[in-house]
TrEMBL record:
<dbReference type="GO" id="GO:0003677">
    <property type="term" value="F:DNA binding"/>
</dbReference>
<feature type="domain" description="HTH luxR-type">
    <location>
        <begin position="212"/>
        <end position="277"/>
    </location>
</feature>
<dbReference type="InterPro" id="IPR036388">
    <property type="entry name" value="WH-like_DNA-bd_sf"/>
</dbReference>
<dbReference type="InterPro" id="IPR000792">
    <property type="entry name" value="Tscrpt_reg_LuxR_C"/>
</dbReference>
<dbReference type="Pfam" id="PF00196">
    <property type="entry name" value="GerE"/>
</dbReference>
<dbReference type="InterPro" id="IPR016032">
    <property type="entry name" value="Sig_transdc_resp-reg_C-effctor"/>
</dbReference>
<keyword id="KW-0238">DNA-binding</keyword>
<protein>
    <submittedName>
        <fullName>DNA-binding transcriptional regulator, CsgD family</fullName>
    </submittedName>
</protein>
<dbReference type="GO" id="GO:0006355">
    <property type="term" value="P:regulation of DNA-templated transcription"/>
</dbReference>
Length: 292
């Protein structure tokens, strides 16, 4: 166990939701309907509760606790815009905080853990410890057949009990609003964040078009085709049909692509591809050119 637990406002009936929560809830409800950016709502939540970082994460039930594969993350990071040595939030902590209850944790409940209890030598705790964040809070938002959605928050100091109670009081509201979110909200916001990040990388010369005519990553013909189809919006099943290959072959291609493009997962690869995605880029117009 990681020093985690569940806070319940029912234990403190004398406390009510503070006015600082109202704006956060209102912004969240507006964001899930597409009225404002999800990152703006996450900022309001950080402002209300004194957090340094807040994120909505979708995590595959089958992945290892500290892996990024099959994970979508939309995050507001207060320090990311202030310090050049702070990288984006890459590895969610929900699976570690909720432990064995990860895929069945009560929707809207509040789970907490002290960062020091994670250990200091894994991919989750290392960046948090380096930033001197001390406490993490997770609220389950939804469970799907193969994945779960969470609201995660990280704090530079211990969270006061009154604020934990307020989080418990609004947790169900946040989850209910998330359930009625506009279609494709998380994916849309992931792409929007990725586009902004990659534009900054491109300006600094650190990012190139993976599918440029000169094939900078030296992709094979098959790997190039997979990337073209991914950048066109096809999912794995559609790629299997388009290329008439099996799932094991596709996995091999993806592993090779990750190594050559220095990406760690399919979502990260998609983020790299989307910056330079062109409507006219198809297998016929691009897939046969300058590939091994």
């Amino acid at each position: 166990m990681y020093g985690k637990g569940i806070y319940s406002a029912a234990d403190h009936p004398e406390r009510t939701v503070g006015t600082y929560c109202i704006e956060a809830v209102a912004s969240w409800c507006q964001a899930v309907q597409g009225g404002i950016r999800l990152t703006d709502a996450l900022k309001k939540i950080c402002d209300a509760f004194g957090g340094e970082l807040a994120a909505v994460t979708r995590i595959d039930h089958s992945i290892h606790v500290d892996r990024t594969a099959s994970t979508r993350i939309v995050a507001f990071d207060r320090r990311a815009n202030l310090a050049s040595d702070i990288s984006g939030y890459r590895v969610p902590c929900a699976k570690m905080v909720c432990g064995e209850y990860f895929s069945a944790a009560k929707i809207g409940s509040v789970w907490h853990a002290h960062v020091s209890d994670f250990g200091q030598q894994n991919r989750i705790s290392r960046p948090l410890v380096q930033r001197r964040l001390v406490e993490s809070i997770v609220i389950p938002l939804a469970h799907h057949a193969n994945s779960s959605d969470f609201l995660e928050m990280h704090f530079p100091s211990a969270v006061h009990a009154a604020k934990l109670d307020n989080l418990e009081l609004i947790g169900a509201t946040l989850a209910t609003a998330w359930k009625s979110r506009s279609m494709g909200l998380l994916v849309k916001n992931c792409h929007r964040n990725a586009h902004s990040d990659l534009l900054a990388d491109a300006k600094s010369g650190e990012n190139t078009d993976l599918l440029a005519v000169d094939n900078p990553c030296r992709l094979s013909r098959a790997e190039y085709r997979v990337c073209v189809l991914l950048s066109s919006g096809l999912n794995n099943e559609a790629i299997l049909d388009e290329l008439s290959i099996g799932i094991s072959t596709l996995r091999t291609h993806l592993r090779n692509i990750y190594a050559k493009t220095e990406t760690a997962s399919q979502p990260e690869l998609l983020q790299r591809l989307m910056l330079h995605a062109a409507p006219g880029r198809t297998l016929q117009s691009w897939g046969e050119r300058n590939v091994a």
